[in-house]
Write a structure and sequence with these properties.
- With 317 residues, this protein is mainly alpha-helical.
- The protein has one domain.
- Helices cover 71% and strands 3% of the residues.
- It is built from ten helices and four strands.
- It has helices at residues 3-30, 38-63, 71-89, 95-116, 119-122, 135-163, 192-197, 202-248, 256-276, 283-306; strands at 169-171, 177-179, 184-185, 188-189.
- A two-stranded antiparallel ribbon has the order 1-2. The protein has a two-stranded antiparallel ribbon with strand order 3-4.
- Helix 1 (3-30) runs antiparallel to helix 4, helix 3 (71-89) runs antiparallel to helix 4 and helix 6 packs across helix 10 (283-306).
- The longest helix has 47 residues, at 202-248.
Length: 317
Amino acid sequence: MEWSTVHNTLTNTSFFLLLINLLACWTTIAFPFFKFLIRPSKWIVILVNIILGITLTSRWLINGYFPLSNLYESLLFLTWCLTLIQILVSLQINSQIVNAISLPIDLFIIAFASISLPQGMQQANPLVPALHSNWLMMHVTVMMLSYAFLLIGSLISILFLVLTQGKSVNLKGDSSGYLTKGEPLMGLMVTEQNINNRKINSTATLNLESRMDLLQSLDNLSYRIIGLGFPLLTIGIISGAVWANEAWGSYWSWDPKETWALITWLVFASYLHSRLTKSWSGKKPAVLASIGFFIVWICYLGVNFLGQGLHSYGWLS
């Protein structure tokens, strides 16, 4: 059996496992009495991460260079990074919630890599001269990790906006939240009298507090994940500039990829600035992070399909 067939089998297996896991996540959220599916769901994410790791490692050993030389390999590596972050996030919050919004992205990437890309683009090809450098592993790995962190963090911000749509929600830095009076949260109306006198019945109070805790957890988790992705993006851009100077004799050429990487950096720098200075809270920074979600995709895929530049050869011929 050829190695390409083995790799395709492993990739297809990952796709079907992710699909099964997505259905399991949605089922446990819609029908809480299916709690017995939660533990297998966590292990499926770990299994997919291992399978993708084996696929990438085998390509590395067979071809003799780190498997980030074309679009197919980068898509697999991005999915591996996303599943790794999902595993780490599951240690902090209900993994089913994060998996429910992250697994569709994993499925899309795997399907795009396996179905949309022609076989010629899935095969490993000899590296072009500019890629014969130790910077390949350093720069591209860090950039892909930063994309994964920023995408997951932005997805959580999008979920936060969906859950608070049409409601005025303010979150405090001490992990306690409060609602503006008269604003409903998921069917619960909070009035000034209820807030001041605590006359909400015990069940409603528990539901309100648990939902506010969820919103606060999502907001904080998004902030922390983006806070991890931003330094990686910064290191990736700096290492890319050094590599560009070594390969092309210029640190910055305003290549479309470089330009959109800078735009991505500015968007998330604004998000973190607003959070650190506490000038914005709640929905406003979440909107900025949600915009960043689409900016990352433009930077990663959009410029490769639509733009012409020095980076195009690394992904599309």
